[in-house]
Fold:
Amino acid sequence: MPKITTQRTKKAPKGWELIEPTLLELKQKLRDVENEPIEGKRKPETVWPIFKLHHQMSRYLFDLHYKKKEISRELYEYCLREKWADAALIAKWKKSGFERLCCLQCVQKGDSNFGKGCICRVPKDHLEEGKKVECVKCGCKGCASGD
Structure:
């Protein structure tokens, strides 16, 4: 008879109890958004709040580790391993020009009509006067650096 293996989660590192309430609150908001009715919304609008909360969770951990230096490297890596934040998005935030990136879809050139980045990546001073910008993919109002 084959041996049954069970999943064992590693014990959370020191400091987890300080950030856990915030992460659980954001996760609960994410569940509430997922269960909201979608009547009267355009198809892309249904996922915009999910992208926003996903961004908030990742930005929260990024700021705690890189900006404020309040959590350890071990705790930060634990959160990434447990999928509390998006490692690929955080990696983009470390690069120059992407510090305020809203989501990874906005920099994927294959998803756009003309093989360029999203309209929300264009700085506001390069747009026509009074033109409102809204990303179709994530609902961002403009995340280009230098605004």
